[in-house]
């Protein structure tokens, strides 16, 4: 007799994303004070130039803020809990452990007029898992094939059970592009065509990205705005000043230093500051010496004073980190909160054991803006005290990512890991063999591969939590990265910005925003 089918529906997954509830946004942002007003262009100070506007080929987490208005995802998420909710797929179901069936929203069209149907979903997912330039292959490793069942139903056949997949499809892999659009190849990096509330207008590198209203959006209540303009301003202080001066309506991904300034502005601006699962971390290329030696990687983890970093770089507003899952988050093992303490003597002993009694040199990559430089200097000094000489190479976010992750230059880079809707993704993308943040593409230890599979196959939260505890401990034991501190999501807006809701990822979405008269 056949085994009973596993029916893990959307409602069964809601509990798996709970915990670490998001605090409310500042008054006047999350709750509309007046009926939504149509019209106006939202002007935003964006701290990064995009790496690409093709969700499949880009890699920087900072791209999401520009991608979200252009691209709907197959599955969406609740901003305060990251629980899954309908997106382009209105329902999903596992008729058996290795099949996920999506029911699609009817009547949706891409910005170029082509239908967003099951054939388009198949074309998108096939491209995401097979294209040579795809940066999301690691996200959907479990996806073996895609079958069109009907114009509004598609079956995802898996090589192994994967209960994380619905929320994986709430990220880049689930952002649906027009097949006619991505057929243009590399040109599509700069000419995106999605189904979102806004259509692409133009992108001038390191200057501006302009979006315009999608009049044919499937949600007839949206968008409220005529357009969104992302003005690229890499200096955060300048970005904040542009909001205070009325040149822009908002600035996002700000640091605590800018929050202190904004707090003194009174009614001129509205400040939103909420917890996130985003953290600063040091990513290693452990294919090459000296970081191919676990003792050197552990020495870095013991050399770093996370409390001092939080106080100096984040003014104490962050939370010291051990793994990519924060304290209080449902998937985190609280027993690991002090796995690596600040222990310079132990760091020096590990370096001597690794044959570096006179110290060791590493090439350290990072962003060139003033705040990033401060963070780098804190880490460089902490490492210097144990004999690790970190030589800094700094540049733009996109350039540093390209050189470190793609060209495999350098030994270590500091990045802001912005998290993903499902906690399985950080481990896949940072430590997985095909993960785009695994610079050396080194396969993780076999026991970590097993724990990853367990985290993505368990059908209940307790089972997933046990698997994540194994993943966290193994990442720490092998010192595969060095987590520093979780950051608050800080955005500053002019008072006329309404209906903004922050999310736990710390990646703002602006599709619901309107401008008060």
UniProtKB/TrEMBL annotation:
Keywords from the UniProt entry: Signal
Chief location category: periplasm
InterPro entries: Peptide/Ni-bd, SBP_5, SBP_5_dom, TAT_signal
The keyword Signal is assigned to this record: yes
Domain Solute-binding protein family: 84-433
Pfam families cross-referenced by the UniProt entry: SBP_bac_5
Subcellular location: Periplasm
Family listed: Belongs to the bacterial solute-binding protein 5 family.
PANTHER family (UniProt xref): D,D-DIPEPTIDE-BINDING PERIPLASMIC PROTEIN DDPA-RELATED, PERIPLASMIC BINDING COMPONENT OF ABC TRANSPORTER
Protein name: Peptide ABC transporter
Record lineage: Bacteria, Pseudomonadati, Pseudomonadota, Alphaproteobacteria, Acetobacterales
